Amino acid sequence: MIIDCHGHYTTAPAPHARFREAQLARLADPSLPEPAPAEISDDAIRESVEPNQLRIQRERGTDLTIFSPRASGMEHHVGDPATAAAWARACNDLVHRVTELFPGNFAGACQLPQVAGAPLDDCVAELERCVTQLGFVGCNLNPDPSGGYWTSPPMTDEYWFPLYEKLAELDVPAMIHVSTSCNPAVHTLGAHYLNADTTVFMQLVGGELFARFPGLRFVIPHGGGAVPYHWGRYQGLAVREKLPAIVGNVMRNVYFDTCVYHQPGIDLLAGVIGPGNMLFASEMLGAVRGDNPGTGAPWDDTKRYIDKLGLSEQDRRQVFELNARRVYPRLAARLPAAT
Amino acid sequence: MIIDCHGHYTTAPAPHARFREAQLARLADPSLPEPAPAEISDDAIRESVEPNQLRIQRERGTDLTIFSPRASGMEHHVGDPATAAAWARACNDLVHRVTELFPGNFAGACQLPQVAGAPLDDCVAELERCVTQLGFVGCNLNPDPSGGYWTSPPMTDEYWFPLYEKLAELDVPAMIHVSTSCNPAVHTLGAHYLNADTTVFMQLVGGELFARFPGLRFVIPHGGGAVPYHWGRYQGLAVREKLPAIVGNVMRNVYFDTCVYHQPGIDLLAGVIGPGNMLFASEMLGAVRGDNPGTGAPWDDTKRYIDKLGLSEQDRRQVFELNARRVYPRLAARLPAAT
Asked: A290 contacts in B (CB within 8 Å)?
């Protein structure tokens, strides 16, 4: 079995985006009526997924995608808690319907109604709803809800602890994932996403978060940002700053996904970080679409790169399936047992 | 000859830092007298360099370091133009004295008196002074003088053009280098430096700056941040966003240094970016000091990694010497001709 831990519902039916537009219009003009989430038929959902994610799963030979709302659409910078809560709920409900229509192909990971500087109560409640009522197996957690200005405290700060307690209680991981950048200096897909991965990793290196939350698990997407390429830098910095060794302090609880879109990057990830901390992921139909003219294959067909690593069968199963089952234990309720 | 294009005067004599403290004290209490730069003897400068940078040059077999003031000490976030101008001048004058005492070992690159949001006139003037009067061969240019909040426009914006015009006129390159991060979420050495490299590269991919300034040259340090590891992502994004091909639009004018502190990172840099766009650099006595316990060699002894690449003699000379002579043509006045 091949589990892709990183997919977003980038092909949601258009009425869903119109609900969002109506939300934003009402924020600009509070005299407008409160909009209701879009009415979307099962057929519309099937049509949004069948020729897209399901087709690609079949073509590439992957089985299940851990599926979450569109990341750049989370828009946590829109600073109204009620709007954020309604938007997260609508996005998650739509993902839930995908997972109900195609239970063998998708498991849900939820968007949280974060607002920079606000308490996390609404996030805790939405996480609990999605996991206990909708069968979701994880969530996306935005370390910078300001959208490119980094106004929130580091993820080692106690600000985040109420959410970590709920994650631990529910035994689900968080993927660290920012949303759109509002900062004109920082491109969303070409800078902000990767910078966030790098920034949070260094926050974790500089703290001892997992001593306090030993069961907490984070997935850092996009191959860990700049981290594997600069692994020596992090090792040396940890020594210079008299921090605990990274392997024991961070790498028991942190996993890097494989959303790195060329062979040399995946080669480096596997060589430096190793199969024990890698989770297969493609982010198909995500940031980077289209084919590499040099190979004729899609940039985001990361399975091809991993297939070329020459991993042992055991390592290969770790990357494609067993690590994901360990990090997302609630997958077990949705899947046949590993053999 | 081996030219190291990235060194900072991290061992400047202590009175220099006391001058800075006095500057900051006067900003807090304007009734204090305006401080004068520290009086530092030639012997004190020799003693600060001889057992440090010069010893390491001898030990590692490198020849000349392009030497600039301490990067994290630039502190462009301190928003007083007169203070910034006096601080840059004092830092550059001290580097100049190093280059005069050891002309075969050091060439200068200057700090600019940047202030977020302020016009660049003072920067243009200091660049001109350093190049035409002090014999400097380049400068460091901070894309985020706010120190971790990214309040300046992208480097493709016309805000920066007066400086680019002077760089082109003087035929000197800029190394893109941020200073200390004031943002508690963003670690200076483990996140902000690498994020800046990544962010600026994407700014350049998204613009057509070098069509307007064909002679302008940037060095992106720390191996280009996350860029080489995610080279496929950038190629795919450029196609998706209908941007010009990166090789023609960016890579004729942009060079990555080799401050990547482990063998797999340098292997990837050389394999993906190639010797034509690599400049040897170590940032010795910089962010990462000490030895890799796995190899017994210093993390920042990047020459060892390059020596192991198995480059042809021509490629090796490009990386160690010829690219630097091309990017920094004013080195020619300080060096014997290339043979």
From this structure: 236, 239-240
Q: What's the mean pLDDT when you consider all of chain B?
A: 97
Q: Are residues B153 and A184, on separate chains, in Cβ contact within 8 Å?
A: yes
The residues, ordered by sequence, that sit 6+ positions from B158 with a Cβ below 8 Å of its Cβ are: none
Among B75, B126, B283, B321, the one annotated catalytic: B283
Q: How far is B101 from chain A (nearest CA, A)?
A: 31
Number of Cβ within a 10 Å radius of residue B209: 23
- Cα dihedral sign for B177, B179, B182, B184? positive
Q: How confident is the model at residue A297 (pLDDT cuts 50, 70, 90)?
A: very high
Q: Do B185 and A234 touch (CB under 8 A)?
A: no
DSSP secondary structure of B177-231: -------TTS-IIIIIHHHHHHHHHHHHHTS-HHHH-TT--EEE-GGGTTTGGGH
Q: What one-character DSSP code corresponds to residue B53?
A: I
DSSP for residue A118? S
Kindly report the backbone phi and psi dihedral angles of residue A176, in degrees, each rounded to the nearest multiple of 5, phi listed first: -80, 115
Question: Which residue of B lies nearest to A146 if distances are taken between CA atoms?
Answer: B149
Query: Mind listing the pLDDT tens digit for each residue in A74-109?
Result: 999 998 999 999 999 999 999 999 999 999 999 999
Q: Which of B185, B231, B265 lies at the smallest CB-CB distance from A199?
A: B185
Amino acid at A111: Q
On whether the CB atoms of residues B299 and B288 are closer than 8 A, the answer is yes
pTM above the 0.95 mark? yes
**A-B Cβ pairs (cutoff 8 Å, strict):** 202
What is the chain A residue with the closest CA to B241? Answer: A288
Q: Is B133 exposed, middle or buried (0-12, 13-18, 19+ CB in 10 A)?
A: exposed
pLDDT at B338: 84
Residue of B nearest to A285 (CA): B240
Please report the beta strands in chain B, taking only residues with DSSP state E, as ranges in sequence order: 3-9, 64-69, 106-110, 138-141, 174-176, 218-220, 254-257, 278-279
Alpha carbon distance A129, A170 (integer Å):
11
pLDDT over threshold 80, residue A339: no
CB contact under 8 A, B235 and A299: yes
Which residue in the set B203, B232, B299 is minimally distant from A262, CB to CB? B232
| Residues of chain B positioned with their CB less than 8 A from the CB of A234 | 190
Taking the CA of residue A200 and the nearest CA in chain B, the distance in Å comes to: 8
What per-residue string of b and e applies to B226-264 under the rule 16 or more CB within 10 Å gives b? bbbbbbbbbbbbbbeeebeebeebbbebbbbbbbbbbbb
CA–CA dist A324, A173 (Å, integer): 10
Ramachandran region, residue B176 (left: φ > 0; alpha: ψ -120 to 50; beta: rest): beta
CB contact under 8 A, A199 and B189: no
Beta carbons of A198 and B191 less than 8 Å apart: yes
Question: Which residues, listed in sequence order, are joined to residue B108 by a DSSP beta bridge?
Answer: B67
B126 is catalytic: no
pLDDT the model gives residue A159? 98
Segments of A119-244 assigned E as strands: 138-141, 174-176, 218-220
The minimal CB distance from A290 to the residues B154, B236, B288 is found for: B236
The residue-averaged pLDDT of A290-309 equals 96
Contacting residues for A94 by C-beta, under 8 A, at least 6 apart: A9, A12, A16, A40, A45, A69
Whether residue A237 and residue B148 make contact (CB cut-off 8 A), yes or no, is: no
| Rounded Cα gap, residues A72 and A140, in angstroms | 12
Contact: B237, A190; criterion CB under 8 Å = yes
Catalytic residues of A: 283
For residue B45, name the pLDDT band (cuts at 50, 70, 90): very high
